[in-house]
Structures are given as structure tokens and as C-alpha cells.
Design a protein that fits this description.
Blueprint lengths: L4 E3 L6 E3 L1 E4 L17 H13 L4 E3 L8 H12 L7 E6 L1 E2 L10 E2 L3 H15 L4 E6 L9 H13 L3 E7 L3 H8 L6 E3 L13 H8 L2 E4 L14 H6 L16 H11 L1 H6 L4 H11 L5 E5 L3 H7 L9 H11 L25 H9 L8 H6 L10
Parallel strand pairs: 3-4, 3-12, 4-5, 5-8, 8-9, 9-10, 10-11, 11-12
Antiparallel strand pairs: 1-2, 6-7
Length: about 375
């Protein structure tokens, strides 16, 4: 399957619009796990994603306290070199080996960044990391300038190809940019959590920084089968049991939003999951979305998301279909920018022609343009 790609800012990496997120691959038994996960199932799921055309995997040292990176490393040893995906990972969350359920600490001290990089290289079995990212801002008092300068050294030494950050606000992005260009930002972004649209995503567009969003399905809430009953059935060590968005009254409101997406999904013969991801990908300035899966079937449900909203006005009209839901009124801000909003890194007319073989004036609204398209909370 040929998937649309975009350049990740000015990094030189050309990535598919959707990438595989391996948070759940880390399994359970730690403070922000998703419950038990079979390694063989994880490997089969990632192989399936690669076979369908996905060319990047996002992981982190803290996922499963090193286990996710180890499983991804096993995958890399199994796949032919020609199919090897780009590997993105993250540092800066330090766990206590004596208490796996203790929340990790956010630490970006330069010496620790280097030690974490070396440990990730070993677990992954690679000689360089394609995109290395700070997972969260430091909470120990370390100056971000010192942290980012160490990241720049890792790039200069060839251990890291591109350097990015996750969960950083505009003020921290400015401070990093003054030291070295920020190649990418990884913010949470979904129909439920749009906060990055007002500051961080426009900043990235202005600075030619790539944006790879996490949790476009809001950690499973914006999927076809999620229910209130399912929350009660989650594994005891699944972090979502404790998350506010999975508790009343937020849970009821969020599921009402999910239900409002069903008619849009039905008109396009696709899944609610794919619609939620497509909404994220259609937002101006977004390069790609990180999407997790625990089985190959789940990948099939969202792999076609990038082809759903081929034209910006299609997304705006889809938004219009949601206005009638009372549950949406408190979370529909910010609204999508008006069509024609200038986004420095995206020529939307050329993008449509390259990705879909259509021109803006070939489409008369959402039905014509999308016919036949296939299938925030604190994060560790």
C-alpha cells in the first residue's frame, strides 16, 4: 500500500502521515502502562503496519521501563533492511527500578540525556536514532538551554539524526530554537484536546518545525467500541482507570462526541477511529499522527485515515456536522482556521495534487472529495 508522506520539517526525514505508536507495546506492570500485552502480538502488529506502508515507529525509553524499545529492537532484527522504518524515541523520564509503579520523574540533566541515549541505542540495536525527543519538560531546575545543547552534541556526533521535543510550550520552544533548530514537536492533539492549535502548532509552522501529534484517538475514547463499561474492565495497571477524561462527567461528554462521529464515518464507509485521526491530520501545520494498535486488525481500522479529508473545506464541513451535539460546545474551541489561512510549510493545492491526484477545484464539497476513502491528560 502506498501511503502519503510529508517532510518532517527540515530534518530530511520523509514520513508517512500516520506512524506506529508503541506505548502499549511496553506492556503492564508500571505506572503508565496499558495492561498486559503479548510480545508476539506486538511484533505481528508492527510487522503488519510496516507491510501496509508505515515507515516510522515512535517509542520511548519509559514505555514498559525499557521493554517497548527492546521489542522494537527485536522487530528491527527481523525485518529486511529495505523495510526498516525510521525509529523515533524519547528520553527524560526516569523511573525507580525498586518501585515500578512509582510515577517517573521528569529529568533533563545533560549527563542523563547522554546515558539514556546510549541505553536506547543498546536496547534498539541501532547505531543512531532517527529522531530523539525530550519526553517532557524538566522539573528539577535544569536549564532547557543546557539540555538542548547536549541534544545538539548528540546530533553532531552522529548518534542522533534529528532532534525534537514533546509536550513543550511556545516559551520552551523559543529557548531551544535559540540554541539549535527544533526539528519536530510531539504534542497531544485530538478532537477532544485542541490546545496545541492556538500556540504550538502555529509556532511550528512559522519555524518550519515538523509536528507529529500523539493521542489523536484520545487514548481510545474516539474509537468505535469504547464504552463506559470498558473502563471498569480495564486492567488494574492501565493508567486510563485513573485519568480524568475516563471518569464522569468527562467520560459521558467524550463518548457523546465519539457518537457524533458515527454518521460521518458511516457516510465514508470507514471507522470512527479513522475519522478522528483524519481530523487531526487535516489540521494545517500537522505533519503526521502517532497511532497505537495492539493487534493487526486495529491497524486495518485506521490505516486509511490520511486519505479521508482530502480538502481543508471537507474537514470544516465535517465540523459543521458536529455542531448540533450539545456535548461538543465546551470542547469545540479552538475552531479550525478559515480556509485560506496561511501555513508557511504547507501548499495545500500542491499537497492535494501530490497526495491524491486531485486539485481543489476538482472537488465540490466533502462528498465528492472524499468518496471512496477507506478505513492530554498527563502522559508518561
Amino acid at each position: 500500500m502506498a501511503l502519503a508522506t510529508r517532510p518532517l520539517g527540515t530534518s530530511g526525514l520523509e514520513i508517512t502521515r500516520v506512524g506506529f505508536g508503541s506505548w502499549a507495546v511496553g506492556g503492564g506492570g508500571w505506572s503508565f502502562g496499558w495492561g498486559p500485552q503479548d510480545d508476539a502480538e506486538s511484533l505481528a502488529t508492527m510487522r503488519h503496519a510496516i507491510e501496509l506502508g508505515i515507515n516510522w515507529i515512535d517509542t520511548a525509553a519509559v514505555y514498559g521501563l525499557g521493554h517497548s524499545e527492546e521489542v522494537v529492537g527485536r522487530l528491527l532484527r527481523e525485518v529486511p533492511g529495505s523495510q526498516r522504518p525510521f525509529i523515533f524515541t524519547k528520553c527524560g523520564l526516569v523511573w525507580d527500578e525498586r518501585d515500578r509503579m512509582a510515577p517517573p520523574q521528569r529529568v533533563l540533566k545533560p549527563d542523563l540525556i547522554r546515558r539514556e541515549c546510549e541505553a536506547s541505542l543498546r536496547r534498539l540495536g541501532v547505531d543512531h536514532i532517527d529522531l530523539y525527543q525530550f519526553h517532557w519538560p524538566d522539573e528539577t531546575g535544569t536549564r532547557v538551554e543546557d539540555s538542548w545543547a547536549e541534544m545538539a552534541k548528540l546530533v553532531e556526533e552522529g548518534k542522533v539524526r534529528a532532534a525534537g521535543v514533546s509536550n513543550f510550550d511556545v516559551s520552551l520552544l523559543d529557548r531551544c530554537e535559540a540554541i539549535r533548530h527544533v526539528d519536530s514537536l510531539q504534542p497531544p492533539f485530538s478532537l477532544i484536546n485542541r490546545s496545541a492549535a492556538t500556540g504550538e502548532i502555529p509556532w511550528c509552522a512559522t519555524h518550519r518545525t515538523g509536528v507529529i501529534c500523539y493521542s489523536p484517538m484520545h487514548s481510545g475514547l474516539l474509537t468505535d467500541s469504547f464504552t463506559a463499561e470498558r473502563v471498569a474492565a480495564l486492567a488494574e495497571d492501565d493508567w486510563r482507570r485513573r485519568a480524568p477524561d475516563f471518569q464522569a462527567p468527562n467520560l459521558r461528554r467524550n463518548l457523546q462526541l465519539r457518537d457524533a462521529l458515527r454518521s460521518i464515518a458511516e457516510r465514508r464507509a470507514t471507522s470512527v477511529s479513522a475519522i478522528a485521526i483524519a481530523w487531526t491530520l487535516a489540521w494545517p501545520g500537522v505533519t503526521g499522527a502517532i497511532v497505537g494498535a495492539r493487534t493487526p486488525k486495529q491497524v486495518d481500522g485506521w490505516i486509511g485515515a490520511a486519505s479521508i479529508f482530502r480538502r481543508w473545506s471537507a474537514l470544516v464541513r465535517a465540523e459543521g456536522a458536529l455542531v448540533g451535539s450539545r456535548a461538543l460546545r465546551s470542547i469545540r474551541r479552538p475552531n479550525p482556521p478559515a480556509e485560506g489561512t496561511v501555513i508557511p510549510t504547507v501548499d495545500r493545492r500542491k499537497q492535494n495534487e501530490m497526495e491524491h491526484g486531485v486539485r481543489d477545484d476538482d472537488c465540490d464539497g466533502i462528498a465528492d472529495c472524499d468518496r471512496g476513502a477507506g478505513p492530554g491528560q498527563r502522559r508518561s
